[in-house]
Specification:
By secondary structure, the chain is mainly beta. Helices cover about 5% and strands about 45% of the residues. It folds into three domains: about 130 residues, Immunoglobulin-like, CATH 2.60.40; about 150 residues, Sandwich (Immunoglobulin-like); about 140 residues, Sandwich (Immunoglobulin-like), CATH 2.60.40.420.
Length: about 450
């Protein structure tokens, strides 16, 4: 998947975008084999929580408790991690807490956090990348009163956009990374949005809200619109920003989310515009090609009483003076030995690879710490994700050398390009127990780039 002969293959953008169905509150999920038309006119075997490629979008309000049952109809173990949610240890989806084939799990999820775009996916060690790649994922959207007061575009004017790259052999999805692809990440040639290759969506000439999830195992997207039209960033992983941020392009790593507004008001009926991924590097195979993801077709005039607010949310900055400890997290090293897929190179954190029962870092509930993710000497891309907590970004050093628009709010996943170091600050919740932090390049994660930390 990493050679130039395997660059992105664009489609005809003539299939209507599918919107995953919404489950309000509790849900029943069945991890199973399924069949879906991912490429136009071609059916593929997939994994699914329902019919098709992706699971339902679960919606909840702050203060509710969501109950989800998972039936494992696969031939291997699985579970669910609720990415970005702050949950008790036994509900988070740690790799040790899995259902065997034919087994089941029940999740009780207290929603104690602010509105935002979260998501869910499997987390069994050594199998996460494959299960996500083959179709097990879905959005989890939380709403609250602060967000509702902003009168943001909603209903048909609020569009979920789940972006994933896929590799096919013939008509079928194929997940079979070689040693090189474990080292770099498994890159597919077709880009799917909401489980479809090259779709379009009809829009009116008015404001829209896009909730964007990078659900790929390894691919990074440098998102923009054709012609350099503006994206208005209003939120990221952990919900709304303080104020809107206007950008022409923005990077989104695996596991990260982006909440954006697009104003189609000045576009004439019949106009077409694309959500694209722009070039971002001549040195990394991922960044050397620009390609289109989703086509918007203005098919009608629209009216809207929406006015872009100057202030979105009240976010109190965590002061560095609150920090009781600074930890350096070295993510640049690779070490020898067989990897999680049987590869010969193994990704590490602080020179260690994942062991299920070893606690690598210990923190105290309610305390604030600074973690420094150091990729200054690295030559690979690492999106780092911490379970069980949301953090704020203090500083990015090297390479891009600045905090980008989507990093000016709460985050749970941070993208580090080669030659970058990022400092984040967080206050650990009162949920005690063992959680993991890891690279969200899922090939790297399955290859051992994950550690346990314990809240006491």
């Amino acid at each position: 998947m990493i050679g130039e002969s395997n660059w992105i293959v664009e489609g005809s953008f003539d299939r209507p975008l599918t919107i995953p169905y919404v489950s309000n509150g509790s849900a029943s999920l069945n991890a199973q084999f399924s069949v879906s038309e991912l490429l136009k006119g071609k059916s593929s075997t997939t994994l699914s929580y329902a019919n098709g490629l992706l699971g339902p979008t679960i919606r909840a309000n702050t203060g509710e408790t969501v109950n989800v049952s998972l039936q494992n109809s696969l031939s291997e173990e699985t579970n669910i991690h609720w990415h970005g949610l702050i949950l008790p240890e036994n509900m988070d989806g740690h790799p040790r807490d899995v259902a065997s084939p034919g087994g089941s799990l029940n999740y009780s999820l207290p929603v104690i956090q602010r509105a935002g775009t979260y998501w869910y996916h499997p987390h069994p060690h050594g199998l996460t990348a494959k299960q996500v790649f083959l179709g097990l994922a879905g959005m989890f959207i939380i709403n609250d009163a602060e967000e509702s007061a902003l009168n943001l575009p909603s209903g048909e004017f609020e569009i979920p956009v789940i972006i994933q790259d896929k590799h096919f052999e013939g008509n079928n999805l194929e997940y079979s990374p070689n040693d090189d692809e474990i080292m770099t990440g498994y890159l597919g040639e077709q880009i799917l949005v909401n489980g479809q290759h090259a779709p379009f969506v009809n829009v009116a000439s008015r404001w829209y809200r896009l909730r964007v999830l990078n659900g790929s195992t390894a691919r990074v997207y440098n998102l923009g619109l054709t012609g350099g039209a503006n994206l208005i960033v209003i939120g990221s992983d952990g919900g709304l920003l303080r104020t809107p941020e206007t950008v022409s392009n923005i990077m989104l790593g695996p596991g990260e989310r982006l909440d954006v507004l697009i104003d189609f008001s000045d576009l004439a009926v019949g106009k077409e515009i694309y959500l694209v991924s722009n070039k971002f590097s001549e040195f990394n195979v991922q960044g050397r090609q620009a390609f289109s993801l989703l086509k918007f077709k203005v098919d009608r005039e629209g009216t809207s009483d929406f006015t872009l607010p100057s202030t979105l949310s009240n976010i109190s900055a965590l002061s560095e003076s609150l920090s009781v400890k600074t930890r350096t997290i070295d993510i640049a090293q690779t070490i020898g030995g067989e990897g999680g897929h049987g590869g010969m190179g193994r990704h590490s954190i602080n020179g260690k690879i994942f062991e299920m029962d070893r606690v690598d870092e210990t923190v105290s509930a309610g305390t604030t710490e600074i973690w420094e993710f150091d990729n200054l000497a690295g030559d690979e891309i690492h999106p780092m994700h911490i379970h069980g907590v949301q953090f704020q970004v203090l500083e990015r050093m090297g390479a891009r050398n600045k905090v980008i628009a989507s990093e000016k709010g709460w985050k749970d996943t941070i993208l580090l390009m080669p030659g970058e170091k990022v400092r984040v600050i967080m206050t650990f919740p009162n949920y005690t127990g063992v959680f993991v932090f890891h690279c969200h390049n899922l090939e790297h994660e399955d290859d051992g780039m994950m550690l346990n930390y314990k809240i006491i």
